[in-house]
Amino acid sequence: LGHLGCTPDALEAWDRAAALRPGEAAPARAATGLLQAAGRADQALAASERWVALAPEEAAAHHARGILLDQAGRLDEGIAALERAGRLAPGHADLHYDLGRALRRAHRDQSAIAAFREAVRLEPGHAEALSGLGALLWQAKNSAMALEAFRRAVAARPDHPVVLTRYANALHAFGRQDE
Asked: How far apart are CA 177 and CA 167, in angstroms?
């Protein structure tokens, strides 16, 4: 129902499922996604807390909670949740990318660089991670490595506006407007 735009009906159905099977994580998982998609961040965070409580070893629960905490401005808690998710599912590139974004917002740039690099190691064409890595390398005055990260990001996602803008700005700074 949620995929059909019937979020209130879908949430009601999942609430009934949760009441029938209070120890199962699936209703909290579904509610987290539905509420997040509906822009109801506080309720989505509460649902993600239930999901984590019901499935403490499920990386996706900690990942979702970490993103929601980060979006709520609770950076340290968000980072801790994303790090927990990373320990549970170390091979998940998007998780490392999200951790890198949170670390960057917390001004922990070296840790963010490491997280973006791990995302790229796991998924070499992860354009967003390459772009985030390039931005931090550029900021750290490592222009050549930043330009290479941006070039790889554009190769992976030539239609991504942020990736294209960062690459164009870097080329301009190098006086290479013809590219």
From this structure: 11
Please say if the pLDDT value at position 20 is more than 70: no
pLDDT at 143: 87
- Average pLDDT (63-78) is 97
158 or 38: which leads in pLDDT? 158
Structure tokens of 170? 């870097």
Between the alpha carbon of residue 86 and those of residues 11, 12, 16, 22, the distances in Å are 29, 32, 32, 27
Apex CA 25: angle with CA 46 and CA 13, to 5°? 80
User: How far lies 41's CA from each of 5, 35, 123, in Å?
Assistant: 17, 7, 29
One-character DSSP codes across 114-146: HHHHHHHHH-TT-HHHHHHHHHHHHHTT-HHHH
CA dihedral 168, 174, 175, 177 (to 10 degrees): -20
Tens-digit pLDDT profile for residues 137-158? 999 988 889 999 999 999 999 9
Task: Give, for 38, the enclosing helix (H) or strand (E).
Answer: none
Going by C-alpha positions, the residue among 88, 153, 85, 81 that lies closest to residue 116 is 153
Q: What is the C-alpha to C-alpha distance for residues 65 and 46, in angstroms, rounded to an integer?
A: 9
* Counts of helices then strands in the chain (DSSP H, E): 10, 0
